[in-house]
Amino acid sequence: MSKKGKGPSTRQLRVGEIVRHAITQLLQRGEIPDPLLEKTIISITEVSMTPDLTIATAWVSALGVEDTQPVIKALATHAKYMKRKLGPTLRNMKHMPDLRFRADTSYDNYSKITDLLNSPKVSQDLDKKNVVEPDLSGDLASRNEAADE
Question: At a CB cut-off of 8 Å and minimum separation 6, what does 76 contact?
Fold first, then answer.
C-alpha cells in the first residue's frame, strides 16, 4: 500500500522529536563553539525526518533577531560537528541523520493572519450588527404542528 499524501509516519514524528530534544540540549549547554550561537536564544520548533530517517530538517527561530539567516548559516556550518556530538545521545539509531536547518516562518504567518483578522475591512464583516441570523423559531413551530397531525 502506498502512503502518498498521508503525512509523516508515527516513527518519523517520534524520531524527529527525539532529535529535536537532543539538538535543543546541545544548544542549551553551549557546546557549539560559535560566538553568534552562544549569544542568541535559539528555538528548534520542529524536526522533520525523511521517510528513511537519513535527513533531519530542523526548523529554527531565533528569538529577538530580525534576520535569522546568519544563525541558520552558523548552524549549517557546525552541522557535522553537531552530528558527532549527538552520536552518544542518539546511539539507538542505526544511522545518524544529516542535519539541515531552515528558518521557521510560522510565527510570521500567524502574525499576518492576526493582522488581517483585525483589519477594518474584515472586522466589519465579523461585526455582529452586520450578521443576519436566521429565524428558526417559525420553522420549529411548523415542524411541531406537522408532528402533531
Answer: 100, 101
